Amino acid sequence: MSNWNSGLTPETAARALDALESGSVLRLQLPFPLLDQESDLLSPGLLSGARKNISYNSDDGSLKGCVNDPQLELCVRGLLERYNSLTRQLADTLFVPYRGHLQVGRTSYRPAEIAGRKSSSWRRDDTRLHIDAFPATPVSGRRLLRFFHNLNPHDSRRWIVGEPFPELARHFFSLMPKPSVLQARLLAFMQVTRSLRSSYDHYMLQLHDRMKADLDYQAKVPKIPVEFAPGETWIVYSDQASHAVLSGRFMLEQTFYLPVDNMAYPERSPLRVLEGLAGHTLV
Ligand SMILES: [Fe+2]
């Protein structure tokens, strides 16, 4: 497809959805030119303090992580609003069965270079293979669908992609402690989590942490390098596809959430795979 809402034939759209829900990365070439007044945005100097990204909430228009400069903030907000709007159109065009079910999450801009950056801990080191799961924001089984765009006009963004989700889940499941209802209640009471951490969220965080902590696993698991060229867009269920980011800067990202029951193949979701291993429901 050549633009953000040109559509696909039903056969191609069905194949794309099948691949996406299998954990594959969909890659697209779609133009997203910067406006003349946005040329200053290709700079890591936009970030406030030690922030890794600038995030925009399209529900309330709030912007976080940008330096305190009204002119720049206006410009970044414009860029993120445009990306938010185009990715929503693209999601509606590409994934017809998801229409009306996708919940729009944050839009973010990551201007800093990944290569050589010191992470504050191994947990935050995204150069190690992992699946996305976040300690403070339980999703209770909802899928994490992300649209990325490499805004860098000169350099690729480099990833590696690891083994399929069912295999990594089987690899780590027997090593993971069982969830504790008491601990989940305590975390919510102390406002460490924004809502009650479900058993599903417990296992996903465990997977995220155990993958990153296990250097032997990181070294030996089958993996393939992937380069996203300047101007490339890619779409992935980042809670399912094992991935690591090796290098790159100036990337846009839009998150969507999808209830598992609105998937074409819900049995492939991390929720259903983990429930199969646990032998009971997890949300
Ligand atoms: Fe990630």
From TrEMBL:
Record-linked InterPro entries: Kdo_hydroxlase
Any single Pfam family the record assigns to this protein: Kdo_hydroxy
Domain of life: Bacteria
Name under which the protein is recorded: 3-deoxy-D-manno-oct-2-ulosonic acid (Kdo) hydroxylase
